[in-house]
Amino acid sequence: MRALPRPTSRALGSLVLGATVAGAAWGTGQDDLLWPAVFFIALPLVALLSSLVTRPSFRVERSVSPVVTPVGDTARVRLRFTATRPGFGVDATAWDDPGPLLGAPHLIRLDARHQGATTHAAYPIQPRRRGRHPLARLTVRTGDVLGFWTFSRTAGLATEVVVTPRVHPLPHAGLGVIGETGETPLPRSAQIGPDDATVRDYHPGDDVRRIDWRTTARTGELMVRREEAAWDPAAWLLLDSRAGVHAPAGDTRPTFEWLVDAAASVGERLLEESYALGLVDAAGDVHEAGSDPAVAAARWLEPLVDVDVTGVEDLRAATEALHRRGDGVLVALLGRLDASSVDLLAGLPASRCARIALVIAPAEAHRNEFDHHRAALERHDWDVRTTTPDGDLAAAWLPDRAGAGARR
Question: Less Cβ crowding at N or C end of the chain, within 10 Å?
Fold first, then answer.
């Protein structure tokens, strides 16, 4: 934006004083008063012409480290101003305003004494909300030697700060498929390890043909081989993005933001356990992060930066997308458990993989209805866990009751 001059109170005072003296000279016929009047009027105009010649200019560079940061973490904005034209005796300042969602404005005094003079500055920002936030409100202000005029110029410098959801550390949940014998089989990655990793203690009723005699001889205790069911460790998260179940509070929806944080945290936990991970929202949009540790974590958080509520009224599109994707661990993050959601989730094909519904509990007035829907979903082998928008996600991630959530 072009720098436009603005008169200071000193310039306005000089012009008013000159006009007043000129009026007095005209009213009283005192011609000698015209010279002071001309001086007071001409002085700001001369200062303006002088400042147009001596006003400094700067080249501005800005960087943010890190450029991708979680909600609540601290990043640093670094600025470098290089004078491309000096200003003699001129006061120059910069005002960088990151916006209320990132932090407080920062004032920087600039060195413009000679060409090439450099000013370095840095200040912290602490994002309060996920999303992509542009840093674009940098203003450079300069004045003239006499303090009659100020020039404000907005630098055409936009820097994007990517704010990801907050990731909470979660305990191991023991997810997986349930084998024919009731035990959790090992993934292929574990089956190539030491012999002891593929055996367990003998239990009465185990098939004697599964006894591992070599390990039994070495340990002195009867050991059997664990079931080796073929297992492709895939997991899907269903994010309830229905606008109708997330009440707005100001310019945000607290329950939806809690579910987005939960999706980020649960996804990170499953990636640590070597699951190939995918996300489905209420509209049926699918995002697959894969399982490559080098890129999966970043790919997983990327859609959660921008995800928003949708206008759909039920989870039909989401369940249809899950039906097409095949079997795997399923975690449904729900803002509300209603009859429609229960019918659609219960209608998914039978699975030997864990199915978890993490639901934001309703108000006490709706508790009976919620308990009815919960019991209906649990009858279809879902492990229903409840929480509140201000609840502890790590505690909510643990099972409400032992042994729930797997098909036996």
Answer: C
